[in-house]
Amino acid sequence: MNMNTKIYKMDAEASDEVMLAEAGEIIRKGGLVAFPTETVYGLGGDAMNPSASQKIYAAKGRPSDNPLIVHIWDYSQLEEIAATLPPEAKKLADAFWPGPMTLIVPKNDRIPYETTGGLDTVAVRMPSHPVARDFIRLSGRMIAAPSANTSGRPSPTTADHVWQDLNGKIEAIIDGGVVDIGLESTIVDLSDEVPTILRPGYITKAMLEEVVDEVRIDPGILSENEKIRPKAPGMRYKHYAPKGDLTIINGSADAVVSYINEATAKAESEGKRVGIIATEETCKLYTGGEVLTIGSREDEDAIAHNLYGILRSFDALGVEIIYSESFSTPRIGQAIMNRLFKAAGHHMIDV
Ligand code: TXA
Ligand code: MG
């Protein structure tokens, strides 16, 4: 498996339809094309072609029981592949599609089990990124796409991140620049009685509750008790993980900075390389380590946007230990901390 991965470069706001038609042809022939969305880059293949789905698992090194998200550009495509649709589907789609929300619904037999990891439900998302929408439309297919990273690594927020992981393993990458949000979509399961969030994201519980009466959060993603398993298979794996050993330090800014400074000095005296995820407010207070600034504590969009890129930078710097401040921001804070917790293997120290 070593092919010449082609790059189609274009502006996020101005799709190149000639290039997208060529990329669409790759999809129709059963090949794989990575493409930008507003959340993270996806690794796309024809959702109705079982062998394309198998190639996606192989390229990512992903367990084949972890289902893919089917990307559409028009609501009628959801109706085409759902066995039944609860009334909430239309309400949520009207409010949040195109956008960073994935709906899980019972599937019919048009979608192969290879795409859903053997499940009778299918995850569907209508992205808002103009290049993603044009690409899906011009391919003439629904596009199955997980995040375009090697399984276990942080999701890609630039085409270069995709290249680092998948060069030589896929036919092409559509480079539409840096993505906007930087964290994966909110997953809402509509296959149970009450709509349930299986993965937090930019669209929050409060936002969903403005549209439908009741929304639950899957207890498996809140609990640190490993016996309560998340319903989304992908949320069960250690994930988003940098190579260095990451610990979150939680407490007042002063206490966090002095804890990290002491721990860093100790680790460095033992010859270890340390990385620190800092904020604009604190970055000047660190006395050692490789300090990377994620943004202002007040700017949660920036924190979401920069998180995966920073984790990848630490991989490139070869740090062995990483300390991160903790971020309890009001709106997408839950999504940020969910990803950071997983990256840290749930290792947090209160100071
Ligand atoms: O923002 C996103 O959602 C990005 C972009 C590319 O659209 N995609 C993405 O896909 O994050 P992926 O494959 O990395 O994550 C999909 C998650 C996994 O945790 C998977 O287990 C879950 O969705 N999932 C997919 N189908 C499911 C189903 N039928 N039931 C429960 N969980 C499902
Ligand atoms: Mg992923």
Shape: globular
Mean pLDDT: 95
Measured distance between first and last alpha carbons: 48 Å
**Rg calc:** 20 Å
Percent range of helical residues: 25-40%
What is the N-to-C succession of helices and strands? EHEEHEHHEEHEHEEEHEHEHEEHEHE
Number of strands: 16
Find the structural class using helix and strand composition: alpha/beta
Low-confidence stretches: none
Widest sheet: strand order? Answer: 1-8-2-3-7-4-6-5-9-10-11
Which sheet architecture does the biggest sheet show?
11 strands, mixed
Determine the number of helices (DSSP H or I, runs of at least 4 residues). Answer: 11
Strand content: 15-25%
Bound molecules: threonylcarbamoyladenylate, magnesium ion
Quick gist of this model?
The chain is of the alpha/beta class and 351 residues long.
